[in-house]
Amino acid sequence: MHNIAVIGAGMAGCTLARRLVDAGRRVHVFDKGRAAGGRMATRVAGRLRFDHGAQFMSVRGDAMRARLPEWQQAGVLARWPQAAVGDSERWVAVPGMNALAPRMLWGAEFSAQTLIHTLGADRFGWWLAEESGTLPDCFDAVLVTLPAPQAVTLFERSTGAGLARFIDAMRQIRYAPCWTLMLSLSERLDVADCLRFPAGGALNWAARDSGKPQRDASRECWVVHADPLWSRQHLECEPEQIEALLTEAFAAAVGRAVVPVQRCAHRWRYARVVDALGQPCLWDADARVGYASDGCLGERIEDAFDSANALADRVLEAGANRDLPWVHAAEQHVHLR
Ligand SMILES: Cc1cc2nc3c(=O)[nH]c(=O)nc-3n(C[C@H](O)[C@H](O)[C@H](O)COP(=O)(O)OP(=O)(O)OC[C@H]3O[C@@H](n4cnc5c(N)ncnc54)[C@H](O)[C@@H]3O)c2cc1C
C-alpha cells in the first residue's frame, strides 16, 4: 500500500500521516477546516488568539511521552506549569494549540477546506469526492479520523465494502457538546490561571489563555468552557445569548464584574467522548479502509494519538503483504472513473 488518503487533520489524522510518511508512504490528508489541528484549535480574532478547543495535553503512555522531546526541540510544545495537577504535567502546543499539527504533517500532502462528502472503491482503488465532484486521485487505502457521527454521515453516503460494519460500530461512540466563551478583558483578574468548577452549574473550566507559555501576556484573555449538561441544554441557542449567559456565570465565579473588550462563543457539537468504542481502531484489510479517533479509546488528545498509532500499525502490517491488486493503479496516480 503506497498511496494513502487520510480524512481529517486532527491529532489522529496527523499521527497517521507522520507514521505513514516516516514509513515511506505517500500520504494525502484532507480536512474541511481552514487549517490542520481539528479540536486542537486556535481562534485568531484580530490581534487576539484563543485556544478555544482542547486546553492541554496530559501524557500517560510511553508512545506519546517518546514524542515530547522532538516536539519540544522543534519549538512547538511547552509545559504549562499553572495547569499541572500534582505530579501530572500538562503540555500545550506553542504559540497556539493548533501549532503541533503542521509540524506532524511534514512530508504529507495537505488539502485544507476540502470537505469529503462521499467516498467509494472501484477497481482502481478508493476515490474521494467533495459535493462539487470527484477528486483527481485514487488511493490504495482510505483512513477516516472524523468524530464518529460525522464519519457515520460520510459512510452512509458512500459505497464500499466494509463500511456498513464500521457504521454499526461507530454508532456506539457518543460525545458531549461544549459551548466555549472567548473573552478579552481590559483588566487583569486577580484569580488563579486555571479554574475548575463542580458539575451542575453553567461552567466546567476557565483558563487565562494569555497566561499559557508563549502567548501575548500583555492581554488578559480567557477561555471559558461550559458544563457538558448545560451545553446540551443550550445547544441550539444563539451565540450572542450564550456569550451573555456565560459572561454572567464567569463574573459570578470570579466574584467581580467582568467587562469584556471582546467576546465570542463557539459551539463544539462533538467535544469530549463520553462513550468510547473500547477498541483502538477499526481496520478492514480486504477493503483497505480504517477508522481512528479519540472516539475509539477515550476523551483525550492522547487517545486520538494512540488510536491512530494502532491503525498505522495495522496499515503497515497489511502493506507488508506483497500481493497487492491495486499497486498498478496507485503507481499511475490516475483516477480513471
Ligand atoms: C472544548 C474542548 C476541550 C477539550 N479539552 C481537552 C483537553 O484539555 N485535553 C485533552 O486531552 N483533550 C481535550 N479535548 C479533546 C481533544 O480535543 C480530542 O480528544 C482530540 O483533539 C481529538 O482528535 P481527533 O483527531 O480524533 O479529532 P478532531 O480533532 O475532531 O479531528 C477531526 C478533523 O476532521 C475534520 N473533518 C470533519 N468532517 C470532515 C469531512 N467530511 N471532510 C474533511 N474533514 C472533516 C475536522 O475539521 C477535524 O479537523 C477537548 C475538546 C474540546 C472540543
TrEMBL record:
Pfam families: NAD_binding_8 (PF13450). Coiled coil: none annotated. Signal peptide: none annotated. SUPFAM superfamilies: FAD/NAD(P)-binding domain. This is FAD dependent oxidoreductase. The lineage of its organism: Bacteria, Pseudomonadati, Pseudomonadota, Betaproteobacteria, Nitrosomonadales.
